[in-house]
Amino acid sequence: MTCPARPLLRRSSRHRLLAAGLLCLGLAAAGGARADLWAFVDARGVTHFAAEQLDERYTLFFRGPRFDSELDIAAPMQPGTAPAARTRVQSYFDLLPAYKSARPHLRRAAERSGVDYALLKAVIATESGFDTLAVSPKGALGLMQLMPATAERFGVAPTRTRSLAQQLHDPAVNVPAGARYLAHLLDLFDGRLELALAAYNAGEGAVRRAGQKIPPYRETQNYVKTVLALYRQLQPLAPVAAARAEGGARSSRIRMTLPGGASGTFDEKREQ
Q1: Model pTM greater than 0.90?
Q2: pLDDT over 70 at 270, yes or no
Q3: How many domains does one find in the chain?
Q4: Number of H helices, E strands in the chain
Q5: 3 state SS of 135
Q6: Residue 196: inside a domain, yes or no?
Q7: Is residue 29 part of a domain?
Q8: 253 is a domain residue
């Protein structure tokens, strides 16, 4: 399957909204794949997401709709589009203290870089589960799991009081640098979101060597599917659906239990 290039659309001179890319992954299963999401909570309380059951620790977080190669992933969710899955994903973040503390940094980074807020949210959830102290086996650090060399390319440097690693464990530094890198990749790959995400995971060279396609690495293919599945569910309701929700008879306050036993009440009329 070939995904046509799509330009970035601008909301204003300061905002680039990602209407980029179609929800097609260039995978053998494209067209029949479901946007399922699996998750497990580790001993530190960090949630790990995946588009498939990577091992026995993962349980099904939600069963999503089938991927539609004609569906623009940046379009608002329409009425009847996997509402239970969408509600569960949205409510998970509403109850996550680590997300709440990082939210101001995401908002500022989205405004300054033009990368969609929901996309940053989906990338961080996939990369680190909003664990500011996350360190990958390869040495990527912080919320957006930046390699030190990449962080330096996008403006992060050690100071007299903090090393580069300490800088990258600070969300106020890590998130803007990661957003700048993601914006660069979107420009580099002509707004093709699936390629930008693949490059974020596997490197720009790997995407080029694969012929401007998602590299044939299971980790990268899973990563792209996971981010896109989260991103799809994090889109705001379409105006018609939102109006219906506001006019509904049931309360907008919902109680739920998260994986790992955490529970809480949230208000669907939340602020990002």
Answers
A1: no
A2: no
A3: 1
A4: 10, 7
A5: strand
A6: yes
A7: yes
A8: no
Higher pLDDT, 80 or 171: 171
Overall residue count recorded for the chain in this entry:
272
CA distances from 166 to 82, 109, 173, 180, 269 (A): 40, 19, 10, 19, 36
Amino acid at 7: P
> What range does the domain containing 36 cover?
18-238
CATH code for the domain of 195: 1.10.530.10
Q: pLDDT tens digit string along 172-209?
A: 999 999 999 999 999 999 999 999 999 999 999 999 99
Determine whether 163 is exposed, middle or buried from the number of CB atoms within 10 Å of its CB (0-12, 13-18, 19+). exposed
Round to whole Å and give the CA distance between 254 and 267: 7
Q: Give alpha helix (H) positions in 95-238.
A: 97-113, 117-127, 148-153, 164-168, 171-188, 193-202, 204-209, 218-233
271, exposed or middle or buried, with CB in 10 Å at 0-12, 13-18, 19+?
A: exposed
- Asked, for residue 71, whether it belongs to a domain, the answer is yes
* Residues forming beta bridges with residue 263, ordered by sequence position: 257
Which one from 127, 194, 204, 246 is the annotated catalytic residue? 127
Dist CA 91 CA 267 (whole Å)? 8
Token readout for 27 is: 């995978």
pLDDT tens digits, 33-71: 556 788 888 888 888 888 888 888 888 887 765 544 333
Long-range contacts, stretch 138-141, CB < 8 angstroms, 24+ apart: 141/165, 141/168, 141/169, 141/174
Number of other residues whose CB lies within 10 A of the CB of residue 11:
11
CB-based contact 8:186 (threshold 8 Å): yes
Q: Is 127 a catalytic residue?
A: yes
Q: 126-139 burial string, b = 16+ CB within 10 Å, else e?
A: bbbbbbbebeeeee
